Amino acid sequence: MRKIDLSGKTALVLGVANQRSLAWAIAEALGEAGCRLAFTYQGERLHQNVTKLAAKYDDALVMACDVTSDEQIDGVFAQVEKSFRRLDFMIHSIAFARREDLEGEFRKTSLEGWRTALEISAYSLVALSNRAARLMQREGGSIVALTFLASERVFPNYNVMGSAKAALEHAVRQLASELGPLGVRVNAISAGPVSTLSARGISGFMDMAVHHRKKAPLKRNIEAKEVGDAALFLCSSMASGITGSTLYVDAGYHIMGL
Ligand code: NAP
Q: Is residue 248 annotated as part of the catalytic site, yes or no?
């Protein structure tokens, strides 16, 4: 079997909260392929978790980064440049909306709630990609963002997060168009429901996962590892002709009508 070898490559993975995080499954896939890893965490609450997970890799970097802070984002890229001298891959696995904006009526979303969700979950990809591209432009690179089908369809309680994912997917295409000439590819993975910290914050998430399992062509939910493998593929040279795409890792759920 052809094995993906990423030794000598480096990746910045944003969005590990714990070992259930999709970002962690992606980091494991990249790490197993020999890639050197840098992680970020948000707030002291997650510092210990992420440091403990990252300890699996001898030479991993662990840095604080709240993506609402330009200063912290700049600090992360300065540290990556200093330690790695290059960046090949960036994984954007970050989303946030206020609890009150993930239930009830969408039309009652406040401007502040809208701004928070769109800033953290979508704008951050733009701000991060701008910095990442500078470190990738010598040898090219790959950026992967995590999205959900609520960008295109209505899912109860996803509300403003659906708007944020629509903005994120548009940003993926816009960035792919701009960064393509620099050899940087930008793609999204649209994952089916996986029980993570963020996912469990959405009311009715477990019912939705059951519905997905029943309706999806493969008659099951996906596993985080399958998202990790898809990200590994998108980062590797096997996906060298793919940019601006959304790859569905959802057991086929997105193709179904009734
Ligand atoms: P997760 O483990 O909770 O990861 C979300 C991460 O975003 C957390 O590490 C969180 O940190 C971080 N984050 C939130 N606000 C941030 C900020 N201001 N600055 C930096 N980081 C911030 O949940 P996940 O399910 O793996 O989510 C990862 C991505 O996958 C998200 O984009 C999500 O929408 C997407 N996705 C998930 C599913 C699913 O069913 N799980 C399906 C499709 C797509 P804190 O914990 O400190 O807030």
A: no
> Is 68's C-beta closer than 6 angstroms to any atom of ligand 1?
yes
Q: Which of 54, 190, 79, 187 is nearest to 131 (CA)?
A: 79
DSSP bridge pairs for 141: 184
For the chain, the structural domain boundaries read: 10-192+224-251
Give the residue, out of 16, 90, 93, with the most ligand 1 atoms within 8 A of its beta carbon, to mutate for a pocket test: 93
In words, the CATH class of domain 10-192+224-251 is: alpha beta
Report the pLDDT value the prediction gives residue 2, as an integer from 0 to 100: 63
Percentage of residues of the chain with pLDDT beyond 70: 99
Please work out whether the CB of residue 197 comes within 6 Å of at least one atom of ligand 1: yes
| Ligand 1 in reach of 95 Cβ (< 6 A) | yes
Distance 23 CA to ligand 1 centre (A): 8
- Of 37, 65, 33, 81, which is closest to residue 233 (Cα–Cα)? 33
In a mutational test of the pocket of ligand 1, which residue from 99, 196, 222, 226 has the highest number of ligand atoms less than 8 Å from its CB?
196
**Considering the entire predicted model, what is its pTM?**
0.98
DSSP string, 29-80: HHHHTT-EEEEEE-SHHHHHHHHHHHTTSTT-EEEE--TT-HHHHHHHHHHH
Q: Is the Cβ atom of 151 under 6 angstroms away from ligand 1?
A: no
3 is catalytic: no
Q: What is the pLDDT of residues 90-146, one digit of tens each?
A: 999 999 999 999 999 999 999 999 999 999 999 999 999 999 999 998 899 999 999
**Burial tier of 152 (Cβ tally within 10 Å: 0-12, 13-18, 19+):** middle
